């Protein structure tokens, strides 16, 4: 697992727009589907896919300072909130119409509307979904988010968007933080700064979204007859509370500059380890039969792109 994390981290620095976590998933998939997974690795993989993942989500909160997000202005924050909320709800509704498993459509909706693979993994913790569902959702956000690196700048040029508008649109619609950074870096420092700031505003929505879904699932479990088997999430997942606490600590300026600079790299490495572990549970033969999941992800991507573009054109 350590070797896979190091390899994924090194490769992510050489491949623009692809995060170490996403590459680690691929390594995990390759290992298990090529017959290289040994039973003695199971305890460590189980630990990484749960404990390490939760720690990574908590540390993600240390990258978010509320004063910086509030500086974006009410218009930009409204675009983020509307695009994220509508995409999440509509994706779940469309998924039901397409016949996609509710747990899988929940993960796809979360990954597309919030922050890609990290959001999928966080929701996977409370949704009672299996690793195939998580793999399908991660595949969707990687595929369409990577396509956005090429498509969004081309569309922005055709539509005559200003650099500021491109930054807002990128942050409000593209799935992975690394993909957002790739578009911003190619377009210039101004675009990069606004795009990443807007993206982090979306990441902030991860905690309330996971918390609300956990509460809804808990109510559903309570409504089942006594003795009926079913997943019963906690009232508030501990890692969600930790994420919120981390945001508060960063917002209060209690994180030293040196620590703040090191946090993104550490978080990326922990996410890579956790998602490598999740990747080892993926059966590719089952995954390739998930054509409806890919269709749902494409629809969700177009939806969040269209809503956020409309909002950007309105707020300027």
Domain module tally: 1
Distance between the termini: 45 Å
Strand content is under 5%
Helix content: over 70%
What's the overall geometry? Answer: globular
Radius of gyration: 19 Å
Helix- and strand-based class?
mainly alpha
Number of strands: 0
Q: Given the structure, what is the number of helices?
A: 16
How would you characterize the largest beta sheet? Answer: none
Secondary-structure element order, N to C: HHHHHHHHHHHHHHHH
Q: What number is the mean pLDDT? A: 83
Provide the low-confidence segments as ranges.
225-229
Keywords: Cell membrane, Membrane, Transmembrane, Transmembrane helix
InterPro entries: UPF0324_pro
Subcellular location: Cell membrane
Main location: membrane
Structure description:
The protein has 316 residues and is mostly helical. It has helices at residues 2-14, 20-33, 42-60, 66-70, 74-98, 102-115, 117-127, 131-159, 163-173, 177-187, 189-204, 206-223, 238-251, 257-279, 284-287, 291-315. Helix 8 packs parallel to helix 10. InterPro entries: UPF0324_pro. The chain crosses the membrane at residues 6-31, 76-94, 106-123, 135-156, 177-197, 203-222, 262-282, 294-315.
């Amino acid at each position: 697992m350590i070797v896979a994390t190091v390899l994924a981290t090194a490769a992510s620095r050489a491949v623009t727009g692809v995060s170490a976590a996403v590459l680690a998933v691929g390594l995990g998939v390759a290992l298990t589907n090529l017959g290289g997974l040994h039973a003695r690795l199971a305890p460590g993989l189980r630990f990484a896919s749960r404990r390490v993942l939760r720690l990574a989500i908590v540390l993600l909160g240390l990258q978010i300072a509320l004063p910086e997000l509030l500086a974006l202005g009410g218009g930009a924050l409204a675009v983020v909130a509307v695009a994220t909320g509508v995409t999440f709800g509509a994706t779940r509704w469309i998924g039901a119409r397409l016949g996609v498993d509710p747990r899988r459509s929940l993960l796809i909706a979360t990954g597309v509307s919030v922050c890609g693979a990290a959001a999928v993994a966080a929701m996977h913790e409370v949704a009672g979904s299996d690793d195939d569902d998580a793999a399908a959702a991660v595949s969707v956000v990687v595929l369409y988010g990577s396509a956005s690196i090429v498509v969004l700048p081309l569309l922005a040029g055709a539509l005559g968007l200003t650099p500021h508008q491109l930054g807002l649109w990128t942050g409000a619609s593209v799935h992975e933080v690394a993909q957002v950074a790739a578009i911003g870096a190619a377009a210039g420092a101004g675009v990069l700064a606004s795009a990443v700031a807007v993206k982090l505003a979306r990441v902030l929505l991860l905690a309330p979204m996971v918390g609300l879904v956990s509460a809804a699932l808990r109510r559903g479990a309570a409504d089942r007859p006594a003795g009926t088997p079913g997943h019963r999430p906690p009232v508030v997942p501990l890692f969600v509370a930790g994420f919120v606490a981390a945001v508060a600590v960063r917002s209060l300026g209690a994180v030293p500059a040196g620590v703040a600079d090191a946090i993104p790299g550490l978080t990326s490495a922990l996410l890579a380890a956790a998602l490598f572990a999740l990747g080892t549970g993926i059966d590719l033969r089952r995954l390739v039969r998930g054509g409806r999941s890919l269709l749902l992800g494409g629809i969700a991507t177009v939806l969040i792109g269209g809503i956020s573009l409309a909002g950007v054109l309105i707020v300027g």
